[in-house]
Amino acid sequence: MSYFLGVDVGGSKTHAVIADETGLALGFGFAGPGSWEGVGYDGLTNTLVNITQQALAMARLDMEQISGAGFGLAGYDWPSQRQAHLDAIRPLKLHCPLEIVNDATLGILAGSAEGWGVSVVSGTGCNCRGWSRDHKREGRMVGGAGYWSGEAAGAYDIVARAMRAVTFEWTKRGPATALTQAFLEKTGARDLDDLVEGTYVGRYFLDSSTVMMVFQVAAQGDQEALDVIRWAGAQLGQMACGVIHQLGLEDEVFDVVLIGSLFDGRPLMAESLRETVQRIAPKARLVRLNVPPVVGGVILGMQEAGLDPRPVREKLVATTKTLLQKLNED
Asked: Domain 3-113+290-329 adopts which CATH fold?
């Protein structure tokens, strides 16, 4: 029997799963932040050692029994960072084929049954990655660079766009919006004058958690809030279009995997994204990631070992979900 390790390293949490060649998930490991940008490369190594030891213990296996491994790594953004990440993984003492990808690419493997296509991430920040059918070409955005690179559709960006609508009401550049009252209640500002001045001078601060308030106001039918959500979807769609052009997927049938909590906020954002993407790639299919991204790591490990994961993918997804549910209940 062959066994495979999948790892999903994030900025807030890190997961590891071990599964056998039939797709049966046997072991799981959990830790907090693992991205080198937050904890450094030594911290990344410590996190990886911790979670793999947990997963191996649960699966009752040794590292020598692992036949392939796949790592999705938040913060692995540029080819120049590859060696540093491989060096951070080396203390695991894996003696098997392994591959590392950006965590957004891992979402493609986890979310698309075909294992290729495009992923769009919208959470605290945003990102977009793509993989060709043969996995030989990668499409990408700058990756979290924000306004200067035209990648502005994460939570804070949406809040900032909503605040712009509020300031447009104040300056009479735009209509009144229910966002104003929502932000007054959020900050405790006395009135609109106080809100705008206080935000400008730093007396009030609207952080990324305020984004759900924007979705709530949109759900009540406020046109300005709806326009903000529509704008965010179009921005994400334009990022996807760039990756589609890079990979030449305009005439292909492929999945666009939607990753991140903001896609649960209101369907309008995904609908706006879909409209933008299908103008240039009419056969693209939007798929919401509803499986643990770490599944993509196991699939990547299987591929690196020369095993076709497609026949066991459904079982891998189902048994990983069952394993996590059991752990949460315990």
From this structure: Nucleotidyltransferase; domain 5 (3.30.420)
pLDDT at site 191: 98
Q: Report the mean per-residue pLDDT for the chain.
A: 95
For residue 81, what are the CA distances in angstroms to 33, 43, 106?
18, 16, 17
Q: What pLDDT was estimated at residue 70?
A: 98
pLDDT tens column, 238-248: 999 999 999 99
Q: Judge whether 152 and 262 are in contact, CB under 8 Å.
A: no
Would strands 14-20 and 3-9 be described as parallel, antiparallel, or unpaired? Answer: antiparallel
Query: Rg (Cα) of the chain, in Å, rounded?
Result: 21
**Which H or E run contains 54?**
helix 36-59
Q: How many CA atoms lie within 13 A of 86 on its CB side?
A: 9
pLDDT, tens digit, 9 for 90 and up, residues 30-61: 999 999 999 999 999 999 999 999 999 999 99
Are 81 and 99 in contact by the 8 Å Cβ rule? The answer is: no
Average pLDDT over residues 134-150: 86
SS (HEC) of 151-212 = CCCCHHHHHHHHHHHHHHHHHCCCCCCHHHHHHHHHHCCCCHHHHHHHHHHCCCCCCHHHHH
Distances (CA, A) of 267 to 95, 107, 263, 264, 271: 45, 20, 7, 7, 6
Judged by DSSP in three states, 3 sits in: strand
The average pLDDT across 251-262 equals 95
Neighbours of 199 (CB within 10 A): 18
Give the start-to-end residue ranges of the domains of the chain: 3-113+290-329
323 pLDDT more than 80: yes
Residue owning tokens 């009401």:
169
In sequence order, what are the residues at sequence separation of 6 or more whose Cβ sits closer than 8 angstroms to the Cβ of residue 20? 1, 2, 3, 4, 26
Task: Please work out, in degrees rounded to the nearest 5, the angle formed at the alpha carbon of residue 161 by the alpha carbons of 155 and 167.
Answer: 140
> 311 exposed, middle or buried (CB, 10 Å; 0-12, 13-18, 19+)?
exposed
